[in-house]
Write a structure and sequence with these properties.
Elements lengths: L3 H20 L7 H6 L6 H12 L2 H43 L6 H8 L2 H34 L3 H49 L2 H7 L14 H17 L5 H9 L5 H28 L5 H4 L8 H9 L3 H38 L5 H23 L6 H14 L1 H9 L5 H25 L2 H28 L11
Length: about 475
């Protein structure tokens, strides 16, 4: 346990450093800068921002956990979809910049092609995701601070929300991208300092290689069927949907220099891959040497704590401070991105689209800052609901973004999709898939969870495809004109 005084000191220093980095440059006075960083982000800066945005805090835990539980197989199924989804998104980012070069949000592009209902369902799924994503960061961060030092959860939530919001209000997406560079530095430096030290103290390469099959020794093959079914299918669907159903990445796609967007996302995927591959070494060390993480091995604490438990057990007390800064960096990189992305949806897709279409850019800029405050307060309030869990929020917004995966790809590659096919594909997938997945999670039924995930993808793909074929044949052609 760390003292609360030291923990709050680390928080204060981290928050001040992030604020200075994000806000010292200038106070954004135009919408193009606040929402799209003047569309001038270069390849390397953008790649680091992409990687940082995709490193949400639990990812720093899960790589070690899956390496501990399911060895090489677990690591492969965690890493490949995480990297693959960014590579897939690189192709989609190129297309959105070609079709809609001056856009701010993906739902804004939907509004330019489809009707109000289709636009509304995209706005609902995308905005809900941003609020829930920020809530997850606040819950995870508050839980970490409470576990490490006893800081009450309500204080943890409020402090983290203030940190994320403070610099986001000043310069919007440009602030987020600048702080992403700082956060990647902290994460990278932390891994360089902690991981080789922990592996050495845990018995070196010998114990690490002994743990490649996981704690049970059964998962030394990356093609283990049990790992693929129990973890791989579900996580692959969820992760491949991640950037595509998330305005955080569409916003970055619009912020890149157009010629750099593809290269930036490919490089960002490669940079991101370093993180789970490095953190997994802690899990392999724990699997090969039970004394490296005794509380996890004895079942006293969850396997999700494998990484920090190895650090706590093997390294001096200062190492936990370094690890805490790494986690704060992961929280911040996603938290501030959620605020910027959510505010763009509120200002562009709600206020300008439905409330005041003739609003000036300066008025929209003001609304954007108000939206950041409202989203921050809403997410904080949600995260303080008694009994609310990371899992509950994650399952909700994970299902929402999975339902938009196939429709979004079809929209960018097909010109003749009727609006009703997209609308009902998403709605039916959510209505059927979410209850089934939640039921499977509650009952611990892996078959139900896998079936629900596959069902969401199939429904959201087949209904749009069906609508295209019916439209070509002239059957139910009028269904493409939903009443507004």
């Amino acid at each position: 346990m760390m003292s609360q005084t030291m923990t709050l000191t680390v928080l204060a220093v981290f928050g001040m450093t992030a604020f200075i980095t994000g806000a010292v440059h200038r106070y954004a006075s135009n919408l193009e800068r606040f929402l799209a960083a003047r569309r001038s982000v270069g390849m390397f800066t953008g790649a680091l921002s992409v990687a940082a945005t995709w490193i949400w805090a639990p990812a720093l835990f899960l790589a070690a956990q899956k390496a501990y539980e399911q060895g090489i197989a677990g690591l492969m199924w965690f890493t490949l979809p995480n990297v693959g989804c960014l590579i897939l998104f690189a192709f989609l980012a190129v297309r959105i910049r070609r079709f809609f070069p001056r856009g701010y949000t993906f739902p804004q592009y939907i509004a330019s092609r489809f009707d109000i209902k289709t636009h509304a369902v995209y706005v609902f799924t995308f905005l809900s995701l941003q609020i829930c994503s920020l809530g997850v960061q606040l819950i995870a961060g508050a839980a970490m601070l409470n576990a490490m030092s006893g800081v009450p959860s309500i204080f943890g939530v409020i402090i983290l929300a203030v940190i994320f919001t403070s610099y986001s209000l000043v310069d919007g997406l440009a602030s987020s991208i600048r702080t992403d560079l700082l956060q990647m530095f902290f994460i990278g430096a932390g891994m360089i300092i902690l991981i080789p030290f922990a592996v050495f103290k845990g018995g070196g390469i010998q114990n690490l290689t002994a743990g490649l099959g996981g704690v049970s020794g059964e998962f030394s093959s990356p093609f283990n069927a049990h790992a693929a079914y129990s973890f791989g299918i579900t996580v692959t669907i969820g992760l491949m949907s991640g950037p595509i159903g998330d305005q955080q990445h569409w916003q970055r796609a619009f912020a890149f220099q157009e010629s750099m967007v593809f290269k930036g996302y490919i490089l960002g995927a490669m940079i991101f891959a370093i993180v789970p591959l490095s953190m997994s070494l802690l899990g392999f060390t724990a699997a090969g040497n039970p004394q490296a993480a005794p509380l996890v091995y004895q079942g006293i604490i969850s396997a999700q704590q494998t990484g920090p438990e190895v650090i706590r057990t093997l390294l001096p007390p200062w190492a936990m401070f370094v690890f805490m800064v790494m986690i704060l960096s992961g929280l911040s990189s996603t938290g501030d991105s959620a605020l910027c992305a959510g505010s763009s949806l509120a200002a562009i897709d709600i206020y300008r689209r439905y409330i005041k279409p003739d609003a000036s850019d300066q008025e929209i800029l003001k609304i954007t800052r108000i939206a950041i405050l409202v989203i921050s307060i809403t997410a904080a309030a949600i995260s303080l609901i008694p009994g609310i869990t990371i899992l509950g929020l994650f399952l909700f917004y994970g299902t929402l973004r999975s339902s938009t995966l196939m429709p979004t790809i079809l929209i960018l590659y097909k010109k003749n999709i009727p609006a009703w096919g997209i609308f009902w594909g998403i709605v039916v997938a959510v209505i059927i898939g979410l209850p089934l997945y939640l039921t499977g999670e509650i009952l611990g039924n892996i078959h139900l969870k896998v079936g629900a995930n596959i069902g969401i993808i199939l429904i959201s793909f087949l209904l749009p495809v069906l609508s295209i074929n019916l439209n070509k044949k002239g059957v139910l052609n009028e269904m493409s004109k939903l009443p507004e």
